[in-house]
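User: I'm putting together a small comparison set for a docking exercise, and I want a reference complex before I start. The sequence is below, and the ligand is adenosine-5'-triphosphate. Could you produce the 3D structure with the ligand included, as structure tokens?
Assistant: Of course. I'll restate your input first, then give the structure tokens for the complex.
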Amino acid sequence: MQINPDEITSILKSRIEGLDAGSATLTEVGTVLSVADGICRVHGLENAMSFEMLDLPHGVVGLALNLESDNVGAVLFGEWQKIVEGDTVKRTGRLLEIPVGEALLGRIVDPLGRPLDGGGDVLTSETRPAEFKAPGVVQRQPVKEPMQTGLKAIDSMIPIGRGQRELIIGDRQTGKTAIAIDTIINNRNTGLVSVYVAIGQRMSTVVALAETLRENDAIDNTIIVAAAADEAAPIKFMAPYAGCAMAEYFLYSGRHALCVYDDLTKHAYAYRQMSLLLRRPPGREAYPGDVFYLHSRLLERAVKLNDELGGGSMTALPVIETQAGDVSAYIPTNVISITDGQIFLEPKLFNSGVRPAINVGISVSRVGGNAQIGPMKRVAGRLKLELSQYRDLEAFAQFGSDLDADTQRTLARGERLVKALNQGERQPLPVADQVIQVYAATNGFVDRITVERVPAFLADLVSAAHARHQDLREKIGAGEWSDETQAALRAAVSEIADDFGYDLDEEGQPLDDDAAPALANGAARSASQNGVAAQPEPEPEPEPDRPEEVAA
Ligand SMILES: Nc1ncnc2c1ncn2[C@@H]1O[C@H](COP(=O)(O)OP(=O)(O)OP(=O)(O)O)[C@@H](O)[C@H]1O
Ligand SMILES: [Mg+2]
């Protein structure tokens, strides 16, 4: 066939003629140079931006991370195994975005917002950038509202405020996740929206967790973002950013959000894996140098916004797993220094039956104190000190009666405080009930009860308060701590303590040697109560050790 150059020119001209300069879109297209382990190198995307989404065949999404002089290193989401050398890669011009919105509530999704729970599509059209610049100082205000966990040990001594970043750190199987879940359950009716980000956990664990939340009516205001252990590193890397973006949707609409990152150690592992594959230079413990920046960028997005911006808040509870309690490893030290305090959990305490197994001595909350309600602040004032004194002297306990009276008293009090702060899983306590229990414990009302019976007494306190002192509970819950309230509380607690009965006299000696073992059996409460009623009580009024410390 003869081709006439004029013909070709005229065809080309006719094609170009109708073209309006503005309507043409220019896409930059590159080709895959190499692909392995969920990472690819692309040639020909000179203008790609960091964190830009890339379009690949088979619905695979790429994320440009390494911008080098002759190629772009990108991580791949989706069925990256289908990508081969020479495939075309298109720039999208958009930075990575995550679907957000109300529709995600009650769902388990992957970091790209795709459902994992078999519950159908997530119907939302809104998106937010995965990486978002954290608000500056001017846009913030100090943390001032409490974010109650429902756990006595935390709300009394390590209070967390809305907008705070509080680290939960400890070895494996020390109850880290349990604290986060109890917090979510405790806030099911407080207008707090929770996002739980599971990184590198088994999918069965995540499903069981969702089931727990469902049983406790907390699933409807929770979003679960899961990047399971068997997922590729890029997916795990994305998970906290996705969760954060989803929480930010609520934050910037003036609401309150809680974001749990469980856990950032595995996130750091995923980032290390990705970075080594991308051939970034390894640093300490083979992590890339910017792993600190990675986590600080993420946690800095937790905020209490000022009122002009709606006053919303996002609280972050990152979780870090340590190896044999080594808090001085690289990732733990990093995250400790980024957060506003840490809750440190210890296997030794956990195994000795302290639940939650919090080491009070090295756990702190640097900003939450301002957010604590007044009554709690007052009654818990001495708690931390008394517990620390007890831990100091604990080793001497074996000397028993050889110790001086003061030491014995500190030990007896400490034992009871530890028992009083114990709390089972999934049993978050409203703050008013916490105040009543902590008040009783720190004001000597438990000193004349055997340690074994302390939980039964505290349970009695709460049920009696619910039945007979509802108005007092409401006042305390609302933060009132006037002299009348204190007097009413003291009267109520002593009355309940009297009803409950004592096992020990003022000196801490058993009232009756035969009765003591029977009394120690806390389960046989009514029986023991009858037993006590049969005994002539030498002193009906309890004589608290330090009656005025609360008023101080
Ligand atoms: N307050 C509690 N009372 C009773 N049991 C608890 C309490 N807190 C945690 N547990 C139990 O301790 C175990 C470990 O808890 P959890 O899974 O929360 O720990 P973890 O530190 O998150 O573990 P992992 O390192 O595997 O993530 C669980 O079996 C849980 O039921
Ligand atoms: Mg866990």
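Residues 102 and 399 are 60 Å apart (CA to CA). Residues 170, 172-178, 321, 355-356, 423-425 surround adenosine-5'-triphosphate (ligand 1) (CB under 6 Å).
User: Thanks, that's exactly what I needed.
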